[in-house]
Write a structure and sequence with these properties.
Length: 424
């Protein structure tokens, strides 16, 4: 009986193994014929265009200044960050505080390319300055392997470009040198990545640009093989350059009729449990912070505005107008600070930068990374954006509690505001 049980168990075991092997073979056959986007994608087209039209330009090298520091604690925190340790070798003459970080990589920072490809094909290629050259030249000679073919299509498939934050930091800079094709080809389809939502503000910006969602926007999913008789590709654009970001801001301003007025608003971009899409980063002593902000606004003849994006029902044009009148913008790190993209040069930006004590060299949004290995970190995004926009950026690092929220040190905050208003 004992040996019979062993034999039965062995039979079941070998049957299961056989099924698994058979499944893996079937999966491998499927993968090679129709699998994921990580495989080579050339199998469904039959030519590469070696003579496509490319419009190129080169920008000048640029520097990004360090943040303003109001005390040694803020300075020491930043000088210990992964960002500073990564880029301090790029400071001219080895003096970062005087000269800032120097950016002059041709591909990553300076060269702008826009490709016009006849019978071009797009298939889940990364839309950035590293856009694959073979993929850029890909064309179709037969229609039967494509999901759809359009007369004209423009690619803006940056990660999360359906969201307000990543429309501004991903699509906006590419629009500065490709917007004319939206007008030149009014029926061209606009490809953006499909997402879990489509932010109303993004939809409204596209509408202001003459791109109606129902007629022109294609919410691209990663299995689509899209062909176009004219494929317009602005993807090979640097992610950062002052000219791109300042031109994007000018473009946003041009979409609405801005009244001529001197910026005089002190705007508190408030993060609450109701409007935050991610856990933590709440200011627990919010009332004390608000009292201080109101007091300084009154003292310096500024109009105090408390901005909660979840309570805004106005059209994006009103939002652009509001932040175009900002003299000072204050807030803790979060997506709503993306509104600094509508604020003028010389606007003062104050960002509370939350961090964990055991990951003190990283903003909290990157605390999952190894602090000894540099990885791109979104925690520095508003610092970089503000510098590209020629704004005055101040940083207030603040340790978080066990729930990733902060109690702002009011003495330090008051010291910071005193430092700022000396310069007003």
């Amino acid at each position: 009986m004992y040996f019979f049980r062993i034999y039965s168990l062995q039979s079941v075991y070998y049957s299961i193994i056989s099924i698994i092997i058979f499944y893996q073979i079937c999966f491998l056959i499927w993968y090679l014929n129709d699998g994921s986007s990580s495989r080579p994608k050339e199998y469904f087209f039959s030519a590469v265009d070696s003579e496509f039209q490319q419009i190129s330009s080169t920008f000048e090298p640029f520097t990004i200044a360090l943040p303003h520091f109001f005390d040694d604690e803020a300075r020491n925190w930043f000088l210990n960050t992964t960002y500073y340790r990564q880029y301090s070798s790029q400071c001219l003459h080895g003096n970062c505080e005087t000269n800032g970080f120097f950016y002059n990589d041709s591909k990553e920072h300076l060269n702008i390319h826009l490709a016009l490809v006849e019978n071009g094909v797009y298939y889940d290629d990364a839309c950035g300055y590293n856009y694959d050259d073979t993929a850029l030249r890909r064309i179709f000679t037969t229609k039967n392997k494509l999901s759809v073919i359009y007369d004209q299509a423009i690619i803006y498939t940056v990660p999360d470009g359906w969201s307000f934050q990543h429309f501004l930091d991903g699509i906006g800079p590419k629009l500065t040198h490709s917007r004319q094709y939206l007008d030149q080809y009014p029926n061209a389809k606009v490809l953006i990545l499909e997402g879990p939502r489509f932010d109303r503000s993004v939809k409204e910006i596209w509408n202001l640009l003459g791109v109606n969602e129902s007629h022109r926007i294609i919410h691209y999913n990663r299995q689509m093989k899209v062909g176009a008789h004219l494929l317009i590709n602005p993807c090979r654009t640097p992610g950062i350059h002052p000219r791109l970001w300042q031109n994007a801001r000018t473009m946003y301003w041009s979409l609405v009729k801005l009244p001529k007025s001197k910026p005089n608003l002190l705007i508190y971009v408030q993060r609450t449990a109701n409007n935050a899409k991610n856990h933590g980063r709440l200011i627990l002593n919010d009332n004390s912070v608000i009292q201080l902000l109101r007091r300084y606004a009154m003292k310096h003849s500024l109009t105090y505005v408390q901005y909660d994006h979840s309570k805004q029902d106005d059209h994006i044009g009103k939002q652009i107008e509001l932040f175009s009148n900002a003299r000072l913008i204050f807030g803790i790190h979060g997506g709503a600070l993306s509104n600094i993209n509508f604020a003028p040069s010389a606007t003062t930006i104050i960002e509370i930068m939350p961090y964990k004590t055991n990951r003190s060299s990283l903003p909290i949004v990157c605390s999952m990374f190894d602090p000894n290995q540099f990885q791109p970190c979104g925690g520095y995004s508003y610092y970089i954006q503000s510098q590209l926009l020629n704004q005055s950026y101040w940083i207030l690092p603040n340790v978080v509690d066990d729930q990733d929220n902060v109690n702002v040190n009011m003495n330090r905050l008051e010291q910071l505001f005193n430092s700022i208003f000396v310069r007003f």
